[in-house]
Amino acid sequence: MTSLDTRQKLAILADAAKYDASCASSGTVKRDSRGGNGVGSTESMGICHAYAPDGRCISLLKILLTNSCIFDCHYCINRKSSNVRRARFTTDEVVQVTLAFYKRNYIEGLFLSSGIIRSSNYTMEQLVEVARSLREDHDFRGYIHLKTIPDADPGLVRLAGLHADRVSINVELPTQDGLTRLAPEKDSGRIEGAMRDMKGAIEDGCDARRKYRSAPKFAPAGQSTQMIVGADAANDRDIVRRASHLYDRFSLRRVYYSAFSPIPSPSAVLPLKRPPLMREHRLYQSDWLMRFYGFKPSEVASATDDLGMLPLDIDPKLAWALKFRESFPVDVNRAPRELLLRVPGFGTKAVNRIISSRRWRKLGLDDISRLTLSVAKVRPFIITTDWRPTLLTDCADLRSLVAPKAEQLDLFAS
Ligand code: SF4
């Protein structure tokens, strides 16, 4: 490896980290100011945006310790057989770069991951050392998200939680078949074992804090994971079931979905095309249905088509409502919160406002139109004092009436 300066390493290792979605730069438009032109890039040179546990959007330095790896996961640009330029930071270099960026107010924290060098334990030791040094040697109070290595010694993984706010372990692919085919050195049993250990350690940490206020915080922002979508044959139904299993068993804060994106010099076993980005978006929406709208995984799965895929042109909640029309219309003046949350077009805020408003007076369609973006989408599914959909809920072409109108594609879109 030729000798690289810190800036060159940063360019390589920030670029290599961008494929990891488990600290999401969600909602940003790609503006690229590399080359010294322009101000306000949201994407380049390792700065990404994530959401802190209190809902704040924070800027993180998102880098790898190294993009060298002894594993050969087919979907990964950093795999052993990939022909990419390699670089490696020392732990002290990561500490110094993080502090320098932090002091200049570029970032509010660090997201650190790594390819596996020498062994899982050695790599984990290096990651933990960065976090330890930042916290103990430099009294760093910023946010730290550490990616942990499932095969590493559980004691080391626990140390990560002592210094990091959030830890994550990627399940990578939704099924063991996919993992066997595309990441032969990984095993879903070992990955889940590491998640189970981490869940136990987080719960122990919370118990200790309840008993002793001076007990150290342990991964206060919990653990998360990432699943790659579209690299293997798993359909949306498989992915929803897998995500629900992970939430239930390991109390994950988030499952991130990352649409597979073709990499330079791809392995022959990978698909040639990326899945539509809308598929990733629909999976995030289904995730919200389970976490905030009271849908069971089986209900979300029942919104999929015969191939187990969620429709791309309408959101999963609308797809479910169109399939299960016997659950509608819902009377907004009488229905419990759980049923209101099932109405397509009602978000949690709208439902809260309906519930607090109806304590004072009966609600009509005009009241509802002020609470939603599109009353046309909501009308077939609700009853108000002055509106009852009668035959509309069951009409054969309801889908075309409530589905968003298709937009003309931009000829010059990237
Ligand atoms: S272990 Fe991680 S870095 Fe290494 S090839 Fe697999 S996904 Fe890539």
UniProtKB/TrEMBL annotation:
Residues 59-286 form the Elp3/MiaA/NifB-like radical SAM core domain. It comes from the Bacteria. Keywords: Iron, Iron-sulfur, Metal-binding, S-adenosyl-L-methionine. InterPro entries: Aldolase_TIM, DNA_rSAM_put, Elp3/MiaA/NifB-like_rSAM, Endo/Exo/Phosphatase_dom_1, rSAM, rSAM_sf, RuvA_2-like. The keyword Transmembrane helix does not apply. Its cofactor is [4Fe-4S] cluster. Gene3D superfamilies: Aldolase class I. GO terms for molecular function: catalytic activity; iron-sulfur cluster binding; metal ion binding. The keyword Plastid does not apply. This is Putative DNA modification/repair radical SAM protein. It comes from Sphingomonas edaphi.
